[in-house]
Amino acid sequence: MSFLYTKVNWLFPLLKCYGIPVFPHPGCFGYPRHEDFHTGVDLYTNDGDQVFAMEDGKVVSIEHFTGDQDKSPWWNNTDCILVEGDSGVVCYGEVTVQTDIKVGSRIHRGQLIAQVKRVIKEGKERPEITGWSPSMLHVEWYPHGYHKASDGFDDYLLDPTDNLLRNAPSTVKSVTYAHYKPSKIRT
């Protein structure tokens, strides 16, 4: 199904971004993690930076995304907002959602929808990773009809990397990480 979702004219969701991770960067889509694969792309930025809608759509879900509230206590508490538009459903994760936005709200391309929230706990910083920041917008992409954030890597997930790269401002480049060591993946 992903061939239907190849080229999308998204608005880049951040004003400042330290790079778009591509393999073998740990923030890239599909990167092997301890027990699974990374389900989205981490766009590294600053705590509190504004997040803008990449396309027109409708809010289909607002959920807890990380932290104690989402059974992942190794992260700080963050939320996510899922917006269904022409390209499918975009999950904007590791954010604080604007208080005036509710499930069912109509969203317009370029509208302020959230602020990035620091997800990495103090003392867990990774400065050796190119472009890394403890605050990031985690972008996941699903086909139409998916109205719940993923809880693991699944075959319905779409890779947003090419569309993020194609629609990024010229100042935002791809970043990779030279010290790739595969994690153990359960089978």
Description:
There is one protein chain. This protein has one helix spanning 161-167; strands at 20-21, 41-45, 50-52, 57-66, 78-85, 88-97, 106-107, 112-116, 135-142, 174-175. With 187 residues, the protein is mainly beta. The protein is globular. Residues 182-187 have low confidence and may be disordered. It has one domain (2-170): Glucose Permease (Domain IIA) (Distorted Sandwich).
- Are there runs of 5+ residues with pLDDT below 50, and where? 182-187
Proper CATH architecture: Distorted Sandwich
Q: What is the CATH class designation? A: Mainly Beta
Distance between the termini: 25 Å
In short:
The protein is mainly beta.
Set out the fold topology.
Blueprint: E1 20-21, E2 41-45, E3 50-52, E4 57-66, E5 78-85, E6 88-97, E7 106-107, E8 112-116, E9 135-142, H1 161-167, E10 174-175
Parallel strand pairs: 1-10
Antiparallel strand pairs: 2-9, 3-8, 4-5, 4-7, 5-6, 6-8, 6-9
Notable traits:
187 residues, two-stranded parallel sheet, mainly beta, 1 helix, disordered C terminus
